[in-house]
Amino acid sequence: MAEVTRMTVDEVVSYFLEGEGVDVLRESLLWVCQQLMEAEVSELVGAERGERAPEERLTHRNGYRPRPWHTRAGELELAIPKIRRGSYFPSFLEPRRRSEQALVAVIQEAYVAGVSTRKMDQVVESLGLRISKSEVSRICQGLDEQVDAFRNRPLEGRYPYLWLDAKVEKVRDGGRVVRKCLVLAYGVHESGYREVIGLDVGEAETEAFWRSFLRSLVERGLGGVELVVSDAHAGLKAAIAQVLGCPWQRCSVHFLREALGHARKEQQGMLAALLRPLFNASSGEAARELVGDALERLRGPLPKVAAMLEAAEEDLLAFYGFPAEHWTKLRSTNPLERVNREIGRRTDVVGILPNDRSLIRLAASVVIEQNDEWLVGRRYLSAHSLEAVLEGDRQEQEHQEEVRELTAA
Q1: Poorest-pLDDT segment among 46-55, 113-122, 224-233, 313-322
Q2: What is the SS3 assignment for 167-230?
Q3: Weakest-pLDDT range from 81-85, 203-207, 329-333
Q4: Could you read off the pLDDT of 15-45 as tens digits, one per residue?
Q5: pLDDT given for residue 236 in this prediction
Q6: Which residue, 278, 336, 285, is CA-closest to 312?
Q7: DSSP β-ladder status, 248-250 and 227-230
């Protein structure tokens, strides 16, 4: 009887990692990784590769991008699937979430650049970070590729509702610490899903900066906007009218805070009781009657607030011109401010960002994760409730087309 040759565990490992079996292991590992990525993307997209599922599908595949991956079996050349809306990054490549990678990268970048503070030293020590210029560069480069792809992605379809807001962050610039403006655009797609569609950093929240930002969204495909919700920044309001030319809703929360700031402490309860019902009325007509009653009661004790309310009436009540199911989500910028708070949780750890790029990288990484969660979650607005808004947009487009044809004739 022939003797059976047996290999120890150490010999098997050595065979695969150092000997003839390395090619087999590499090919097997590559195949498993590709299958895992395809499975993850199928779940994110809502359809298998090549499957036609128009009702359940959330987005579409959009080719592949190569990415080297260094393993003990050698370097693997992965083909990472791309999707049209949102983003995809394999779960097995990095042990941290994208926002955590970005936060660590910013901390490392600040430390390597020599701009660390005592707080930063403590963070580096507590996290046990490896400070290496080459490692920082590698991480930042990988994150920047994802961030750039997200910020420059085409905007397909219509976005009937758009929220705009700004957030101030401290950034080092030219050897000084300056306050810069991080702006965000958050929209609801015609499919009912919400997403952050734009993000940028500017020197200040000026009309010129807002106008440039909105034009960049239009160039990427933003269209069909029926209502924009924001605070009452004069430059932003002017940019919306010039670039988008659609109705504007003044944030009711910002207005209420401003109004309360013009009242004495003992008057604030009465003022809030008069203003809050304006945004919870059964109809636009009922809300306007409440405005009239509030103005009569405010002209004596609070004439400045009465003048503010009278001037802002149409902009504060613009949301009543849309389906009632949407009112609670259209009357303020609260949905976008929740995203701002998530960004603030990360930027507060750093304190002072080393440069504009690091702020964009960190903020975009947070909203990319948020977008991925929204894409596979429930619709923000039902497709049925959006039909009336989208139909109105179609009729307006047809009317404008008829006007152009008559003008040309």
Answers
A1: 113-122
A2: EEEEEEECCEEEEEEEEEEEEECCCCCEEEEEEEEECCCCHHHHHHHHHHHHHCCCCCCCEEEE
A3: 81-85
A4: 444 555 446 666 777 887 888 888 888 887 7
A5: 93
A6: 278
A7: parallel
- CB 25 within 8 Å of CB 73: yes
DSSP-assigned states of every residue in 225-291: --EEEE---HHHHHHHHHHT---EEE-HHHHHHHHHTTS-HHHHHHHHHHHGGGGS-SSHHHHHHHH
Domain boundaries, the chain: 8-93, 252-326
- Contact call for residues 117 and 351 (beta carbons, < 8 A): yes
Task: Please tell me which residue, 138 or 9, carries the higher pLDDT value.
Answer: 138
Contact call for residues 166 and 109 (beta carbons, < 8 A): no
Buried b (16+ CB within 10 A) or exposed e, 302-340: beebbebbeebbebbbbbbebbeebeebbbbbebbbebb
